[in-house]
Amino acid sequence: MVNRQRVKDAFAEYTSQYDNSDGKIKLKVDHTYRVAALCGRIAQSLGLTIEDVQLAWVIGMLHDVGRFEQLRQYGTFSDEDSIDHAQYGVRILFGEKKIFDYLPITEDEEAYRIIRTAIWNHNAYRIEEGLSGREELFCNILRDGDKIDILKVNHDIPIEIIYDTSIEKVKNETVTPEVMEQFFERHAILRATKRACIDSIVGHAALVFELVFDESLKIVKEQGYLDKLLNFESENPITKKQFVQLRRCMASYLECV
Questions:
Q1: ∠35-49-110 over CA atoms, to 5°?
Q2: If you ran DSSP here, which 8-state letter would residue 20 be given?
Q3: What is the pTM of this model?
Q4: Distance in angstroms (rounded) separating the CA atoms of residues 44 and 55
Q5: Tens of pLDDT along 97-153?
Q6: Apex CA 192: angle with CA 22 and CA 34, to 5°?
Q7: How does pLDDT run across 11-60, given as a tens digit for each residue?
Q8: Is there a contact between 89 and 98 (Cβ–Cβ < 8 Å)?
Q9: At what angle do helices 177-184 and 237-256 cross, to 10 degrees?
Q10: In angstroms, rounded to a whole number, what is the distance separating the alpha carbons of residues 237 and 59?
Q11: CA dihedral for 238, 232, 181, 84, sign (positive or negative)
């Protein structure tokens, strides 16, 4: 059985070496706890065992360990401009053996492999092929939990902190045509097609198309952050029309799922 207090203490000890007065550090600490809770809720909704619900919660707690060192070394959360934070988290937890600070686990246990695999795949456009059914299950639980909370983060946290730019600039941008097309195709937006910060906002809303579990969609509808994100107050008349189209597309999708 997972000792949640031990996990929380180890996480607090690890993150204490970073400046928690930095808004970006606090953002990721808070995000971690929320994703862990979401993973636990999704796992519980699936009727999983207590042990598996605990495992889902732990994966949520550990999924963004790589973010903190990424920010310290590179000054950004952009994987494209620095390192893949998921792979770096795996290196810290499993390469540097930090996983043992959190759990009394051995390398030959199934949970060890599942945690590693879920963290490795959580930010990928698609999860890797050839996984076992249980590996895929926990990958999807984490990916859903992470996507759900990204909607909250992008609504609650100032754009200046998330994107290192001004709100005035973003309010005057237009959504790249390729990004619009992919949204209308109802799938996640490829990073390579994003040209502006407004594209990232649309990309985060599009993550809803990738949610796997009914409970995940239920949470999104409960929280209301998707609606707020798609009601972004642009000052560009072209973008205002684009967001009307985006809202219609998403509303149509949610009616069918």
A1: 80
A2: T
A3: 0.95
A4: 11
A5: 999 999 999 999 999 999 999 999 999 999 999 999 999 999 999 999 999 999 999
A6: 40
A7: 999 999 999 888 889 999 999 999 999 999 999 999 999 999 999 999 99
A8: no
A9: 20
A10: 43
A11: positive
